[in-house]
Amino acid sequence: MSSRDVVRLVLLAGLWGGSFAFIRVGAPALGAFWLAFARVALAFVALFALAMARRDVPSFLPHWRSYAVIGVVNSALPFALYGFAEQYIGASTAAILNATSPFFGAIVAALWLRDPFTLPKLAGMTLGLAGVGLLVGWQPEPLTAAMLLAILACLAAALSYGIASVYAKRYLRDVSSNAVALYSQLTAAIALAPALLFVPVPAQPTPLVAANVVALALASTALAYLLYFRLIASIGPARALTVTFLIPLFGVLWGTLFLGEPLTWNALAGCALILCGTWIAARDGRVKPARQPAPAPAPATRDSAAR
Asked: Which one, of 51, 143, 48, 52, lies nearest residue 93 by Cα?
């Protein structure tokens, strides 16, 4: 791997890890659905403008059903879930829980694709579940019902990423990654739009909130996709997906530095167990780690990374 690719990989992890800090600022002001809609809509506009500038706008109709599925399962649903969750828990906790995506991907692959469980997968999942238990079980403040629901929402988002990875492997193997990125954001925006009719219109956001929303859409979504696709072309999908192991570290770092979130021993220990479990499971060669909240390219499964 060249030094430029290493820089791209670290930058990508920083952008996807930063998405959790951006959500933590934007979600309390805008709510889960408005924030998720703004994120995917702005990201689509940016990606479409880039495609127009390159004079390379892919066709939508041949694979519109698959774009719709990926848009809902891999963007609209998990983005809204994280927007809800981070109104009650910190960005660091959400970023760590996101690292469980590969475990759910392995379970879905076993049920859907008959991909057998192996000893490394089982060992990795056991370590990961222990990490989740450690992270959730020892909180610096009492675990309220809202916090527990938020944690379950994060795990549901990780499950959604796992389902999307297997679906992409099954149905989008020969579809351009750029097309998946572009039209999954469009279909996610279409899916989220009706929900906006049933939730209060947020007050005019402050400049700080608006800046975080723009950064979330343009940096942690549109720009992150471009970096990810460049890495896939340069070093291959499997090596590019190693970004999964860096996302929680940056999520914790940004939450501590910019949001003043406490760096607790159980967060560090839980993060270590989850990442070790992911690494052990991914070494099996059949499970590829997940990325934070981005559409999975065809040959590679998510398990992003993000996100």
From this structure: 143
| Cα–Cα distance, 147 to 152 (Å, whole number) | 9
**Nearest-angstrom CA–CA distance, 86 and 207:** 20
User: Tokens 């994280």 label which residue?
Assistant: 82
Dist. CA 84–CA 219, nearest whole Å: 21
State the pTM of this model: 0.83
* Burial class for 257, CB neighbours closer than 10 Å (0-12, 13-18, 19+): exposed
d(CA 282, CA 73): 22
Helix (H) or strand (E) holding 44: helix 32-53
Least Cα distance to 221 among 50, 29, 66 occurs for 50
Computed on alpha carbons and rounded to an integer, the radius of gyration of the chain in Å comes to 18
Tally of residues, the chain: 307
- Return d(Cα 291, Cα 247) in angstroms, integer: 8
What is the rounded distance in angstroms from the CA atom of residue 107 to the CA atom of residue 90? 27
Tens-digit pLDDT profile for residues 130-156: 877 776 666 666 778 999 999 999 999
Both tokens assigned to 137: 């079980």
Res 22: pLDDT: 97
Residue 286 has pLDDT above 80, yes or no: no
Query: With bands split at pLDDT 50, 70 and 90, how would you rate the model's confidence at 282?
Result: low
H or E stretch including 255? helix 247-259
Work out the mean pLDDT of the chain and round it to a whole number: 83
The answer to whether the beta carbons of residues 115 and 166 sit under 8 Å apart is: no
Give the residue carrying structure tokens 């809902």: 72
Q: Is the confidence at residue 302, as pLDDT, over 90?
A: no
Which one-letter amino acid corresponds to residue 305? A
